[in-house]
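dude i think i finally got it to work??
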Amino acid sequence: MTKIMKYFWKENLGIVLLMIGEGVGLTIASLLNAAILNDLIQFNFLQFWLHVLQLVIAFIGFLLFTYLKIRRICSVRQQMATKLRHDTIKKLFATSYTNFNKNTVGTYASWVTNDVNQIEQAGFMPFYELLSGLIKSTLALIALLSFHWSLILMIFVELFILVQLPRLFNKKMRTVTTEVSKKNEAFLSKMTDYLAAYDTIFVFRKFAFILEKVKKASIELGIAKNQQAKVMAGVTIAGGLGNVFGQVSVFALTGYLALLQKVSIGSISATGSLASEIFNTFGNISQYLSSINSTQPLFEKMYQIEEIPEIINKDFVLSKGFELENLTFGYQHKPLLKDLHFTFELSKKYAIIGQSGSGKSTILNLLSGKMKSYTGKLTLGNTALSELSLGQLYQHVLYIDQNPYVFNGTIRENLEMGDTYSENELWDALKNAGMEQFVLALPKGIAADVGENGKFISGGQRQRLTLARGLLRNKNIILLDEGTANLDNETALNIEKMLVEKEALTVIMVTHQLRAEIAEKLDGILELT
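look at this
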C-alpha cells in the first residue's frame, strides 16, 4: 500500500494538514474542559463564561476540519481505487496472451471489483483512521506533558505493550484475507458463468439447479468471511482490553497526583479526555494494522502481473509474407503441428482447411502472435515473428476470430472503438460486410444500441458487425477464423468474394466450408490432417 500512498503524496499531505487542524481543535477543547472545571471550583464565573465561549469556538473549528477531512479522504480514496483498477487492467493488457489466459475473466473482474473494494474498506479506511488517531495522540501527549511527567512515562510503557499485539494476528489475518479473495474470485466467476447461460437455463428450465449452485457458492464465500470476522473479533477484543486498562490507569494516576496537589482537580477531566484519545487509537492499533496488513496479498497479486515490454524492431520491413519452416507446436507435450512448411505470400489469398482439431485455428493464433511456444521458424518480412512487437505486427495484420466480441454500446462505438472515421468510411465498411441495409432500416441507424454482447441483434449481424469493424482498419493482411460461418450462404459468399478480389490484400482464412467459387480464386490451400 506504500506505493499507492507515495504516488498520491500531495493529496495525502493535504489530508494530514486537515487532520492536524482537527486534532488541535480537539486538544484545545480538552484543555478548556479542565479550565472550566477549575473555574467552577474557584467560583470564578467570569473566567468560566470566557472559557465556555472559547470551548464553543474550539469545537466549531474541530467540526469544520472534520467535515473537510471526511470529504477529502473520500475523494482521494476514490482516486487511489481508480488508479489501482487502471494499473491492473493496464498490466493485464501488457502481459502475454498466454499469461492472460491463466485465469478466467471472472477472476480478473474480481480483482478490480471485490479486491479493490476490500482494499478500500480494509486498507485505506483503517489507514486514515490510524493516521488521524496518531496525530491526535501526538498532540494529546504534548498537552499531557504540561500536567506531569509521570503521566507521559506510564503512557509510553503501556503503549509499548499495546503495539506488540498486532504481531500476534498478522499471519492469521493475511491467511483469511487471501482465502476471502480466492472465494470472491470463484464466486464472481461462477455468477458470471451462470448469468451468461441464461438462455440455456431458460430453455431447459434448470432454475432450481442453478439456484442450488448459487446457494452453495454463496455459503462457501460466507464461511471464508465468517472466519475473517472471527480473527478480526479477536484483534478487536485484545486491543479493547489494553484500551480500558490504559484509560483507567491514567485516571487513577491523575487522581493520585491531585491528592498530592501536584495537579489541579480539573486536570482529571483533561487528562481523562486526552488519555482516551491516545488509548482509543493505540487500543485499536492492532485492529488497524492487522486490517491494513491483510490487504498486502491483494496488492502483491496485482503488482506481480508480468508486463511484457514492447521492443520495436527497427529493421523490420513488410517485404514478404509469412513463412513457416519446420514449424512444430503442441499442447501439453502432445504435437498438433509437426514440421510444417508453407509460405503465405503478400497480396495473395489462402484457405486453411482440415478436420476439427487438426490445428487450423492454432495456425492463425501463431501467425497473430498469440502463441509463441513453437519450435522451428516463423517469419514475416524476413524477421522472426518472435522478434516483432505485437504493436508492429498488428499495424499490418488484422485477426478476426470465430467468437468476436461485441461491446455494450452503439453500432458506431463498436465500429470505431475509440478511433475516428468519416461517415463514408463507416458506411463503406458496413456495406462490404453486408450490413448496410440492416443498419439503414434501424430507427436510430448507426447510433442504434446493440446491447450486452450484441444481444439486440442476431448472431449473423454480430458477425457482420465485427467483420465491418475489421475491414474499417484497412490492414495489409487479414486472418479470418470462420469469419463468415454464421452468415447465410449468399452473404458469406459475397463477403468472401469481396475479400479475395481485393488485389493488394493478403487473406488467410480458416474454413470448414470452402465454396467452389472461392476456391478457384485462391492462390493456395493448406490442408491439415
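The chain has two domains: 2-303, 322-528.
im so relieved honestly
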